[in-house]
Amino acid sequence: MTPSGATVRPTAPTSATPVRELTRPPRLVAGDRVVVVSPSGSSPKDRIATGVAMLRDWGLEVEVAPSAGARSDRFGYLAGDDEARARDLQEAWCDPSVAAVLCARGGYGVQRLLEHLDWDAMRAAGPKVLAGYSDITALHSAIATHLGLVSLHAPMVATEVFVNDERSAEHLRLTLFEPEETQTLSSDTARALVPGQARGVTVGGCLSLLAAELGTPTGLPSAAGAVLLLEDVDEKAYRIDGYLTHLLRSGWLDGVAGVAVGSWQGCEPVEELVHDRLSALGVPILWDLGFGHCPSTLTVPLGVTVTLDADAGTLVLDDPALA
Question: pLDDT-derived band of residue 1, with 50, 70 and 90 as boundaries?
Fold first, then answer.
C-alpha cells in the first residue's frame, strides 16, 4: 500500500521493451504542399478557410481534403463515413508531393478508420509530418507503431486555439519551419508535482484515448522508458481516475521514466487525484506544462528523446522535433 492507501503494481524491474526514439520527418520550407484532413469530426467550412489562409500566409501550398468539411449522414459527429475519411488520409500521406498532413479538428472517429488504412503503402511513402491532438492521439499511436515516425501533438487548423491564439499558432509554425527554436518547452504555470529529473522518449497525448487504445493493434505496447505526456478535456474526476487506474493495473506504466502533465480544460479538479494515482511510480511529475486543450497550447513532438526537469518546469528536446 502507498501512503495514500492506493495499491499499484511495482514499476521496476520491468520486462517491457523500452519505447524507442522514432524517425524525425523533414521540416517544412516555404512552398511545401500540405493537406488538411478530418480523420474525426466535422469542422465548419468558414473555420477551415480561416485556418487555411493562415497556413498560406506561412508560404505553404494548401489543399483541403473532401471530407474535411463534410458530415456523415448517419452519424453527425463524424466528418463523412469511415472509408472516405481513411481514403482522404491515405491519399494525402501517399502523395509524394505532400510534405505534411494537418488535422482540421479532433472530436471522435480516428479509431473507426485505423483498420481501413494500408500501413504498408503509407510506410513506403516515406516520412512526413502529422500534426493534431485530442482524438488524433489514436492516430499518433498508430503512426508510431506502424510507421516509426515522430509526430506533433499540436493545435489543429480549424480550432479556436489555432485561429485565435497567436502564441499557439506561432509555436506550431516555429516547430514546423525552425524547430531549433522550440527545443525547450515550458510555461508560466509549470511546476513540480513530484520533484526530480528524468530522460526518455515522449509518448502520450489525450488520456482517454491512450486508455482506449490499450491492447489494440495500433496502441503502443508499453510506456517503459518514456516521458509520458497526459492531458484531457471535459472529464469527470472519477473517469480520469478510471483511465489512470486502468493504465496502472494493465502494467502499461511499468518502467515509465517520468510524466509531463498538460491541461485538464473543463475537467473537475484532478491534481490530488493524479498525485494519488501516479506518485507511487516513483518518477518525476511535471504539472501544467501548457499543452493540450488549453486556450493557449504548446506543440510537443511525440517520439523524441527529452530531459524532463520537474523542478525547473521544463521539457528539453535532445534534437529539434523535425530533421
Answer: very low
Q: What are the Cα distances from residue 28, in Å, to 54, 131, 320?
A: 15, 12, 13
Mean pLDDT of the chain: 94
Which range of residues forms the domain containing residue 146?
Answer: 33-179
Domain stops at, among 144, 179, 214: 179
The grid cell for 117 is: 488504412
CATH code for the domain in which residue 270 is found: 3.50.30.60
Q: Are 21 and 293 in contact (CB under 8 A)?
A: no
Give me the catalytic one of 43, 67, 134, 141.
134
Q: Report helix, strand or coil for 214.
A: coil
* pLDDT band at residue 7 using 50, 70 and 90 as cut-offs: very low
> What are residue 261's DSSP bridge partners?
230
Same domain, 87 and 202: no
Whether residues 109 and 222 fall in one domain: no
Active site residue 231: yes
How far from the centroid of its chain's Cα atoms is residue 271's Cα? Answer: 21
320 close to 27: Cβ distance less than 8 angstroms: yes
For residue 315, list its beta bridge partners.
Answer: 185, 308
Concerning whether 293 is annotated as a catalytic residue, the answer is yes
Residue 13, pLDDT above cutoff 50: no
| List 187, 213, 231, 279, catalytic entry | 231
Is residue 263 flagged as an active site residue? Answer: no
Domain finish residue from 156, 179, 202: 179
pLDDT digits (tens, 9 = 90+) for 67-94: 888 899 899 999 999 999 999 999 999 9
